[in-house]
Amino acid sequence: MYQHNDFDQAFLRNRNAQFRSQVERRLSGSLTEDEFKPLRLMNGVYLQLHAYMLRVAIPYGTLSADQMRVLAEVAERWDRGYGHFTTRQNIQFNWVALTDIPDILDRMAEVGMHAIQSSGNCIRNTTADALAGASADELADPRPYAELIRQWSTDHAEFQFLPRKFKIAVTGSPEDRAAIAAHDVGLQLVEQGGEIGFRVLVGGGLGRTPMLAQELRAFLPSAELLPYLEAILSAYNLIGRRDNKYKARIKITVFEHGIDTFRAAVEEQFAKIRPAYTGEDQALLAEIAAQFALPDLRENLAEFDATTRAVDPLYAAWAARAVTDHKRADHASVTVALKVAGEEPGDASAAQMRALADIAERYGYNELRITHSQNVVLPHVAREDLPAVHAALLRAGLAAANMGRLGDIIACPGMDYCALATARSIPLAQEIAQHFQTLGLEEEIGALNLKISGCINACGHHHLGHIGILGLDRAGAENYQITIGGHEGDQKHPAAIGEKMGPGFAYEAVVPALERLLRTYLDLRNGAEETFLDAVKRLGLAPFRAALYAEVRDAA
Predict the structure, then answer these.
(1) Residue 495 burial (C-beta neighbours within 10 Å; 0-12, 13-18, 19+)
(2) Which of the two ends of the chain, N or C, has the fewest CB atoms closer than 10 A to its terminal CB?
(3) Angle of helix 225-239 relative to helix 143-153, nearest 10 degrees?
(4) Tens-place pLDDT, residues 251-281
(5) Nearest to 379 by CA among 297, 273, 481
(6) DSSP assignment of 188-222, as one string?
(7) By the 8 A CB rule, do 94 and 52 touch?
(8) Beta strands in 364-435 (DSSP E)
(9) What is the pTM of this model?
């Protein structure tokens, strides 16, 4: 893991002191709210429905056990005892007092954490594959590049006031676990002629105008990453729209100008920028990469895991969902579900955070990851320790075995917290998970990705759900649109935006509609091996649309 050096520590101290002064000026009245707003947003502070919210950056989703303990301390000391992990690999504290935020930032800085650029029209937290550095299918660890991007983009003078926010995701695997096609820039490590480089995508994003990113470069030598990113940002900064914030994202810029015209603008900027990069970035990358070496993994009795699976059905069910192959056969990666039925998706209590820190310290080489699906990963676990990890997770209430299933719902905070939301997300997610758990259908339904957003901004990534739900306001009442067939993309299915099925449903009608939809899938599928997404691809939307609106037709 990257360790902050003296420069990093001094930077955070100075930045936090600056923000403390800004807060004092706001409280004294010398700064108006309009003047204070861009300053607080640059430091991750939002004004939500009921309180200020602090969004803490977790760069490329990587945390140490000590950092997780500090997040638990923040939750317990300054919030209401929990934090909410987001689809951007961040954590949000929803009930902080403005007067406490400078102290929170100072405490986090002690362990190398911050909230810089977790909001605002700037380059946001760079996200990455949560299995980076551990996955058996990985070409190379993308996190050194993500850390390089973080250092380059933080307080970059030219990119603090972009037309709109800008999000970058990077993966080192052919299996996209970072949803790169849904980002302003998506980077995938690839190999060409024995050289490591990047496939570069541009112009993705969700929200009110969902679009998938298009290929800008099939192969970019890794040494040219920063100047090429700077060229993309410079081209966007020059020609991106500023007259309408709904048309200011780079996806609109690429759409309006066309990918070929935008590529030409980027290449023109790149030709100007590239000569200024004379190797300092590569020297820095080498220093960063040295800090991302694999831990000193110990040899262990991996067969203990297989033996336990054979005699303990509860452990076997959990391991089938939670355990992923590691690049070393006697180790594994473990996904911890923050999606217990009836609880708020993505939330973790201070006690649970401390339990995760303890487990990581004892069994996981001191490292944790936050996923873009609002779960937690222990990337390096000796296989002989997996039964003990399961037992510890059981004690912490974190041993749900629903990863990649219906209960693993992604949901934004919705109208319970967010000032922008137009409908509730969390209660609906809770009702859906509980309903299908009670029916006992979750395992029978199998692999399914369900995502819920409480407004058109799509923070729940509903467009990419096999089933997506968008909550809107219709004449003062909550109304939920359902989309089908969305996908983040993998080697089997390309990334896709879900198709809207028809008129929306009232809140109380959503769960019955989903049950009709999923029972239809169970009736029509070609055996248990055909997933919901496979069935949609084979059958088309018509039978599922008919199932959703069967009750409406019957009533007519």
Answers:
(1) buried
(2) C
(3) 50
(4) 999 999 999 999 999 999 999 999 999 999 9
(5) 297
(6) EEEEETTEEEEEEEE--B-TTS-B--EEEEEEEEG
(7) no
(8) 367-370, 376-382, 410-411
(9) 0.96
